[in-house]
TrEMBL record:
GO MF annotation terms: tRNA (guanosine(9)-N1)-methyltransferase activity; tRNA binding
GO BP annotation list: tRNA N1-guanine methylation
Domain of life: Eukaryota
Biased composition (Basic and acidic residues): 14-35
Statement: the UniProt record of this protein carries the keyword Lipid biosynthesis: no
Biased composition (Basic residues): 42-51, 61-74
Source organism: Fukomys damarensis
EC number: 2.1.1.221
Complex formation: Interacts with tRNA.
Active-site feature positions: 210 (proton acceptor)
Sequence intervals crossing the membrane: none
Designated name of the protein: tRNA methyltransferase 10 homolog A
Known function: S-adenosyl-L-methionine-dependent guanine N(1)-methyltransferase that catalyzes the formation of N(1)-methylguanine at position 9 (m1G9) in tRNAs. Probably not able to catalyze formation of N(1)-methyladenine at position 9 (m1A9) in tRNAs.
C-alpha cells in the first residue's frame, strides 16, 4: 500500500514547493495596498491643506505686516507735518471747556438687580465714561455707592477701571459727598420739568436696570431724602413710537450734548437711537392733523384736539431702566 501511495504524495508536495518558489520573497514582505492604513477623512484632508497653505504664506504675511507698519508710520509723519502746531490732538484738547456741573450715577440699587442687569449697567457706565472723556464740555463725573455685585463684575471683567481718569468713584452714598441743596434727582415721576441746567448743581441719575419692576422707586427715594427732583423735558420736544425708556448712558449723553448746544431738541435727536422712532412733537401734530382731516368728521375730533390727546406725557421714563444697552 505504501509503495502505491508515495508517488501521489511526492507529486503533490513537489507542486506546492514549486508554487512557493515562484513567489518573490520581497513581494511577500511588501504590505498590500490599503492594508493597515487608516483612510483620511475629507475634513482632515481639508485641514491639512489649509495648514500647508498657512505655512507656505508665512513669509508673505510677515512682509505685509512690515509694509503696513511702514505705511502707518509714514501717515503719522505726514499728519504731523500738515499740522501747524505739530500735534492735532493738542489743538483739539485746547477747545475743551470743562463744565462745573456734577453728574452722578447712583449705584445704590445693587440688591434690586440680578447679575444680567448688573452687567448691563456696567456697560452703560463704560459708555458714559468714554463719552465724557471725548466731550467738548465734560462734566464732573461721580459714581457713588460703588460696591457689591457691580464692583465685583468690574473687577472681574474690566480691571482697567481703577485707572480711569476724570471720574470720582466712591463707595459712599451721594448724600454723604454733596450738599443736599445742590442735589437734583432726575426721575420720570417728578412733576418738575427741567428747562435749563444749573451748572452749580449735581444731577443724579438712578443706576437701576430693572425693566420697570420698581417704577417710581427713584422718585420715592428722592422724596424720602428731601432733595430736589426733576425730569428731562422729553415730552416737550419728542414723540416716540416705542417705549419711552432711556438707558443711563442716554440720559448722560443728552446732558453732555445739551451743555454743548444749549438746545434740548437737538440734544434729544442727536442721542436717541433710531429704533425709538423719535419725531419732533410739531411734526407728530401735523401728521395727526392730516390723518384726522382725511378721516372726515366721523371721528368727532378735529386735528388739533387729536394732536393734543396723542401728545406724550412730559415726563421721560426712568433713565436707568433700559433693557437694551449700546
Amino acid at each position: 500500500m505504501s509503495s502505491e501511495m508515495l508517488p501521489d504524495f511526492n507529486e503533490t508536495s513537489g507542486a506546492e514547493r514549486k508554487q512557493d518558489l515562484s513567489e518573490d520573497p520581497e513581494e511577500k514582505q511588501k504590505p498590500r495596498v490599503n492594508e493597515g492604513i487608516e483612510p483620511v477623512s475629507k475634513r482632515r484632508m481639508k485641514k491639512l491643506r489649509k495648514q500647508r497653505q498657512w505655512e507656505e504664506q508665512r513669509e508673505l504675511r510677515k512682509q505685509k505686516r512690515k509694509e503696513k507698519r511702514k505705511r502707518k508710520k509714514l501717515e503719522r509723519q505726514c499728519q504731523l507735518e500738515s499740522n501747524s502746531d505739530g500735534n492735532d490732538r493738542k489743538r483739539v484738547r485746547r477747545q475743551v471747556v470743562h463744565s462745573t456741573l456734577r453728574l452722578v450715577i447712583d449705584c445704590s440699587f445693587d440688591d434690586l438687580m440680578v447679575l444680567k442687569d448688573i452687567k448691563k449697567l456696567h456697560k452703560q457706565i463704560q459708555r458714559c465714561y468714554a463719552e465724557n472723556r471725548r466731550a467738548l464740555c465734560p462734566v464732573q463725573f461721580y459714581l457713588t455707592s460703588h460696591g457689591g455685585q457691580l464692583k465685583k463684575n468690574m473687577d472681574d471683567n474690566d480691571k482697567g477701571w481703577v485707572n480711569w481718569k476724570d471720574i470720582h468713584i466712591k463707595p459712599e452714598h451721594y448724600s454723604e459727598l454733596i450738599k443736599k441743596e445742590d442735589l437734583v434727582y432726575l426721575t420720570s415721576d417728578s412733576p418738575n420739568v427741567l428747562q435749563e441746567l444749573d451748572e452749580s448743581k449735581a444731577y443724579v441719575i438712578g443706576g437701576l436696570v430693572d425693566h420697570n419692576h420698581h417704577k417710581g422707586f427713584t422718585y420715592k427715594q428722592a422724596s424720602d431724602y428731601g432733595i430736589d427732583h426733576a425730569q428731562l423735558p422729553l415730552g416737550n420736544f419728542v414723540k416716540m413710537n416705542s417705549r419711552k425708556v432711556l438707558a443711563v448712558n442716554h440720559v448722560f449723553e443728552i446732558i453732555l450734548e445739551y451743555l454743548q448746544t444749549r438746545d434740548w431738541q437737538e440734544a434729544f435727536f442727536t442721542i436717541l437711537p433710531q429704533r425709538k422712532g423719535a419725531v419732533p412733537t410739531d411734526k407728530a401734530c401735523d401728521s395727526s392733523s392730516q390723518d384726522q382731516q382725511a378721516a372726515g368728521a366721523e371721528g368727532g375730533l378735529d386735528g388739533e384736539a387729536e394732536c393734543s390727546r396723542n401728545e406724550p406725557d412730559s415726563a421721560y421714563p426712568e433713565g436707568a431702566q433700559e433693557e437694551e444697552t449700546h
